[in-house]
Write the structure tokens for this entry.
Amino acid sequence: MSTLSLRNPNSLHEQIRQLAKREGVSINQFIASAAAEKMSAPLTEEYIEARAKRASLKKFQKVLIKVPDSEPEDYDRI
């Protein structure tokens, strides 16, 4: 565990304090969760880009050939 000092406007600190209290967590836990949540979008994008670079259209088409040509179930219709 490490320490990170932040300087925030009083209004932001107060909003964080109120939200943390409402969620029943400490300010530290609230900020850690918020940072993790914020990080998830760009990290997911990087992961998907890396997977896409490994993709093979030939392999994808080979798998699609195995899918039966049938009508969708009623619950899958729009």
DSSP finds three helices and no strands in the chain. The chain has one domain: 10-68. Helices lie at 10-23, 27-53, 57-65. The two ends are 50 Å apart (CA to CA).
